[in-house]
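Figure 3 (text version): structure tokens given as input.
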């Protein structure tokens, strides 16, 4: 696949600039929102279990905090850049504002490919990051969570590293979300992003007048978000006709049994080669003959070139920033209905917020309560964005951006002139 000229940061800035024109934002306000409030680069020097000393760069970005402490996950990948993290932090500012949780936007990055390292070495790197980043993490500053390449076990190590460093058994308040339930995590957080993708997809089908039960769905990415979304959508009766992960794609017009595929992936580590489907490329999955496409892998995968060949009528953005601005224009012309990332995948950060409140109350929320609050909130916000888009004749992304940025701007003005 040809690489897009739009990275996450370029896409985020372009979306903001277009929104600023629609909202007639003052130049000074746009300038403020385009810039990151704080970006920190840390050099880690951990020693791995084989005795080797390695050097790893890490970044922490706080884009804005007018609505609350910066919130956003830790991305661990061999090629993550500070610009990616700035773009992702900016997205978090809009996402938290849109879904209505009292947080700003933040993100961190650890430049190391976690695939293939042992659990012990990963723990060493995560603890090294935590020690290096400690001054920048806290319930009133920046609250990290899982993102690509990190998981709940890593969040447990962060929580332990912080508490241990202070000689305490717990942290005083919520320093990190997405922790194992046994360490103060919340039930359903792991599934929350995929669940939110499924809920918004169902809502989109209703608005677009077709039944999810007869829908054919293609899912790009079979990690935590894609696999959970695929599972819930297929349980609702839809047919999953194509799936891919980094190793390649598979397709089957008759439908793929997601439960069976999950057990295959657990055993073999990849979807490519699954015996009950035909092998195909990642691009074939994006352009497959389907009604709903769920890009849940990574950024900038839907370029203008690919957008021309997409057949889906609904695109549910499970990943952050999967669509480049030039592809968006094509979708607009083709009247493809987009559930934008800042809405579609906001289930994760919403449930992170529930975990944040649960931690101070020290009372475990039930899974039923978490899922029902998630459903109410994300479908409620979907309807708000949909109504706004109809009222102002905008796309779903434009409507979502207008609503989110207006809130951040309102809070910024409400704070007054700072010294
Ligand atoms: N990494 C997730 C996201 O991009 C979750 C962030 C969080 O829960 O803070 O939305």
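Below: residues designed for each position.
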């Amino acid at each position: 696949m040809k690489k897009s000229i739009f990275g996450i940061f370029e896409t985020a800035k372009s979306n903001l600039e277009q929104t600023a024109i629609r909202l007639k934002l003052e130049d000074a306000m746009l300038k403020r929102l385009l810039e990151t409030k704080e970006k920190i680069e840390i050099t880690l020097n951990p020693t791995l279990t084989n005795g080797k000393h390695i050097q790893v760069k890490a970044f922490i970005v706080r884009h804005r905090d007018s609505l609350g402490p910066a919130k956003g996950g830790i991305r661990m990948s061999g090629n993550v850049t500070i610009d990616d993290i700035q773009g992702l932090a900016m997205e978090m500012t809009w996402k938290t504002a849109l879904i209505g949780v009292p947080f700003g936007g933040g993100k961190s990055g650890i430049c190391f490919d976690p695939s293939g390292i042992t659990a012990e070495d990963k723990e060493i790197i995560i603890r090294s990051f935590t020690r290096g980043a400690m001054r920048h993490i806290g319930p009133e500053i920046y609250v990290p969570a899982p993102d690509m390449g990190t998981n709940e076990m890593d969040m447990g190590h962060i929580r332990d590293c912080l508490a241990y460093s202070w000689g305490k058994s717990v942290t005083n308040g919520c320093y990190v979300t997405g922790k194992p339930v046994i360490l103060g995590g919340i039930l359903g957080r792991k599934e929350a992003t995929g669940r939110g993708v499924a809920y918004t997809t169902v809502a989109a089908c209703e608005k677009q007048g077709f039944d999810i039960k007869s829908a054919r769905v293609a899912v790009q990415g079979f990690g935590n978000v894609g696999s959970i979304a695929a599972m819930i959508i297929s349980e609702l009766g839809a047919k999953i006709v194509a799936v891919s992960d980094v190793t390649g794609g598979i397709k089957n017009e008759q439908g793929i049994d997601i439960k069976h595929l999950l057990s295959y992936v657990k055993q073999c580590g990849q979807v490519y080669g699954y015996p009950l489907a035909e092998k195909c490329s990642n691009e074939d999955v994006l352009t497959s003959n389907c009604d709903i496409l769920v890009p849940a892998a990574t950024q900038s995968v839907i370029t203008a070139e690919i957008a021309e060949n997409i057949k889906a009528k609904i695109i549910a953005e499970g990943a952050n920033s999967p669509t480049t601005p030039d592809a968006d224009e094509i979708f607009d012309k083709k009247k493809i209905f987009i559930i934008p990332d800042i809405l579609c995948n906001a289930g994760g950060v919403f449930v992170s917020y529930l975990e944040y409140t649960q931690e101070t109350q020290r009372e475990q929320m039930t899974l039923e309560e978490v899922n029902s609050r998630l459903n109410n909130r994300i479908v409620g916000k979907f309807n708000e964005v949909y109504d706004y888009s109809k009222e102002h004749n905008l796309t779903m992304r434009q409507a979502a951006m207008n609503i989110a940025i207006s809130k951040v701007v309102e809070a910024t003005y409400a704070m007054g002139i700072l010294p």
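Residues 71-73, 95, 145, 147, 177, 320, 345, 348-349, 352 surround glutamic acid (CB under 6 Å).
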